[in-house]
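thread: overnight batch results

M.L. [08:02]
morning all. the overnight job finished for the chain we discussed friday. pasting input first so we're all looking at the same thing
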Amino acid sequence: MGRRPLRPTGLLHEGGPSGTGRIEEIRTMSEAQQHQVATGDRAILPEGARTIPIFVMGKRYEVPETLTIMKAMEYVGFKFLRGCGCRGGICGACPTVYRKEGEYKLRFGLACQTVVEPNMYLAQIPFYPANRAPYKLEELNPVAETIHALYPEIFRCVACNSCTKSCPMGVNVLDYISALKQGDIERAAHLSFDCIQCGLCASRCMGELPQYHIAQLARRIFGKYIQARAEHLRKRVEEIESGKYDAMLEMLQKMPQSELEELYKNREREPDLAPPGTWRPQDTQYL
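M.L. [08:03]
and the structure it wrote out:
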C-alpha cells in the first residue's frame, strides 16, 4: 500500500483557433483530503492517508507515516508478546535499533515513542543478556568497593561514550560509571535516576559492562543506606500502620462507581500556581 495518487475524474477541453487547448483537471480529493495523514497512534488509515516504507528485521512494509514504531509494527501484523510494556516511555521494554537509508550511523529509541521515518531499517532488542550479579541488599556494605567487587568489569571501561550515545533517555551513562569508579555512589545514583533498564548501553559497550545493572545497584545502596530518611514519610507510615485510613478506604471501596466519579470531579484541588508547600485543603482530617 503506497502513496495514493491523485487521479482526475475527467478533462475539460477548450479548443482555440490555433488548435491549442486548456486542460483543467477535476480531482477527486479536496486540498484538505490531500494532506490527510494517520495522526497519533491510529492504526486505521483515514481516507487518503499517506504511507511510507520501513524495513522490520529486513522485510519491507508500508505503514502510516505518523505512527510510532510499535503501532506501525502492530499495523502490519506483529503481535507483541515481549518487548511491549507501558507504551509510555517508562518501562524500557521496547528498545529499538534503527538506521536510516544511506547512513552508516546506528540510532536508538523506544518503539513506543519513536515515530517511523521513510526507509527506516529497524530491529528490536526486548531483552539484552547482560550479567546481573546476585546479591542481598540487606547484607551489603554500602561502600563503592562493594559495587567494584560485584561488578569488577566496571574497570574495563575505556570511556568511549558509546553507552551515553545509545541511551534513549539522555542519561549520561559514562559520567555515572566514572563516578562509581571514583567511589561516588550518591553522584552515580542521581546521574542514573532516569535509567529505564532497557539495556541499550550494554549492547554498545566495548568493555562489556552491564551499566544499567550497575546503576540500579548504586541507586539501591544509596536509597537504603546513604540518603537521609524523610521524617514526614516515617510519620505517614506509622499512621497507615495504626489504621488511621482504614475506615475511609473501606467507605470508598463500597461506593458505586458513579459516586466515586462525582467525588473525584468535585474534589478540592491545589491551585496550579500555589507556591510549593503553602497550600492546605480545608478538610485536613486525612493529612
